[in-house]
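Changelog note: in this version the structure field was regenerated for every chain. One regenerated record is shown below for reference.
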Amino acid sequence: FPVTILVSDGQKYLIRLRKDVSFLNKPIVKRTLEEVPENAYVLIDASRADFIDKDIIEVIEDFMKHAGLKNIEVEIKLSKSRDQGFSIPLSDPLGHGYSTILAVPHSKSV
């Protein structure tokens, strides 16, 4: 499967995108993100994805924009070696060798 969901505990989620994630996976990705409960932390690991369809990127970015409404903290791990098409600014504040996008609920500070 191009999308793997691993849950470490009730409030921490890891969603791993595999090699190629096409528009055919949009319902799966959207449903998965919609099922994340309030007050959760989500790490979306896209660092191994060679291709992510623009429809998938749109679903993920939309989720990030509205995550604060459910007090969800979202982090995306992307490959530094290739542009995966995200429009949200990337950073690597801890020098991990990959880019991250962080969406923090309004009540928290970075």
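Spot check on this record: Helices lie at 26-34, 54-66. The first strand starts at residue 3 and ends at 9.
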